[in-house]
Amino acid sequence: MASLHWPARLIVVRHGQSAGNVARDLAHEANENRIALSSRDADVPLSDLGREQAAALGGWFAQQPPEQRPDVLLSSPYLRACQTAEIFRDHGGSAPDAPICFDERLREKEFGILDGLTTKGILAVHPEQAEFRRLLGKFYHRPPGGESWCDVILRLRSVMDTISLHYAGRRVMIFSHQVVVLCMRYIVETLGEREILNIDAAGDVANCAITEYRFDPSEGKTGGLVLHRYNATAPLEAQATPVTKAPDLIAGARG
Asked: What predicted TM-score, i.e. pTM, was given to this entire model?
């Protein structure tokens, strides 16, 4: 029986491949300073492959027993995350009438004046920020108008409070972004700066990969969430869908 403080399952999913991921790769290959996109980061849609990945994820969950499928869907309001959640549901990943609750606290890390710049572009346009980041480290560096990882963690702590208050004992799936997936690990597993940065350095979170926690009544005095799998791409591989691990639109997405 789940504790009154925890969901029975917590599954965090990175959105499918986006048009921004594709544009970022092209900008780096061309050695450009900026990524060629005309819309806000919040409005960047899924690529065709990203839609295929979201459908594969939903189809894989549709084949699981009902008690294995999420019954609460939470999503970043960014278009690529919303589309991933909707396609997932449309392909049977959850009940067709399951509402998708959009929560701005699950949005992508904000990059401020570094928005839209490649790594080369940051060095060329804002060399002082590149130096600040080197000195402070990616965990604490906050670009002007943007956020540090600590800022993201602060808003995610309140998300966990909401989940505990409203969805204890439920099967919760979150559709969000790479930094959010990592920062959720930091919170749930009570990790330190070095530990989470080592996980980040080991490789990108794949598009539509799942990170899953399950409630364990023997964990601690009142039970707790235990990591079951991280960055798992088995749902995509089972559907013979290409796996992509490109960082998000902004060069600092992993920063």
From this structure: 0.90
